[in-house]
Structure formats: structure tokens, C-alpha cells
Design goal:
Number of strands: 4
Distance between the termini: 22 Å
CATH class: Mainly Beta
CATH topology: N-terminal domain of TfIIb
Radius of gyration: 10 Å
CATH architecture: Single Sheet
Shape: globular
Number of domains: 1
Structural class: alpha+beta
Strand content: 25-35%
Oligomer: single chain
Order of helices and strands: HEEEE
Helix content: 10-25%
Number of helices: 1
Amino acid sequence: MAISKELLEVIACPKCHGDLELPQSEDGFLCHACKLKYPIRDDIPIMLIEEALPL
């Protein structure tokens, strides 16, 4: 999956509004402040707090 640079510049954690990191595996966005991973399923980022996985 190719995430656009524009999306990476504006996407933020829905819980703390902090920066997210996209690891090379591109299987989910990581928020180190909240220690959560927002998964990517079928090339769609799931940005719901209740769907986030603990790191």
C-alpha cells in the first residue's frame, strides 16, 4: 500500500492528536505517546480508538 506524503503530514492520533509513525511493514499506524497501533485493513486505515491495538 502506498500512503501519500500529504496523508502522512496531516494524519494524527485520534486519542491524543499526536504524530503517528508508519513502520516499513505498513500494517498499521503507531502512536508512541498512547502506545497504540491503528491497523490497516484492506488498504484502509482504521482510525477508531476502540479498534486500536496496544503496542
